[in-house]
Amino acid sequence: MKRFFSLLLSLLIISGNLMAQTAAGDAVPMADKLREDGKIWVVVTVIAVVFAGIVINMLRLESKVSKIEKDLNIK
């Protein structure tokens, strides 16, 4: 257990340096350009469609698996 906590602590310390966020005063030119052109909504829409597709696929797979379990009497 002590080893787990030391590993977790070391990962948290290392991950502090890996943050991909900029400082408060820094601006990201690409994001600003997308916001100005209104294309950021295209990016958001594409991400939402991909996420919805993944969710629908997972629901379909769950129903198929539960049907197979019911047919085979697996609990």
What's this model, at a glance?
The protein is mainly α and 75 residues long. It has a domain at 40-75.
What does this structure look like?
The longest helix is centred in the C-terminal third of the chain and has 33 residues, at 40-72. The protein is 76% helix and 0% strand. The chain has 3 helices and no strands. It has a domain at 40-75. The chain is mostly helical and 75 residues long.
Write the SSE topology.
Layout: H1 2-16, H2 29-37, H3 40-72
State the helical fraction.
over 70%
Strand content: under 5%
- Overall structural class, as computed from helix and strand content, comes to mainly alpha
Could you tell me the number of beta strands? 0
Radius of gyration (Å): 22 Å
Counting H and I runs of at least 4 residues, what is the number of helices? 3
Helix-strand topology string: HHH
Protein name: CcmD family protein
Pfam families: CcmD_alt
Keywords: Membrane, Signal, Transmembrane, Transmembrane helix
Organism: Dyadobacter psychrotolerans
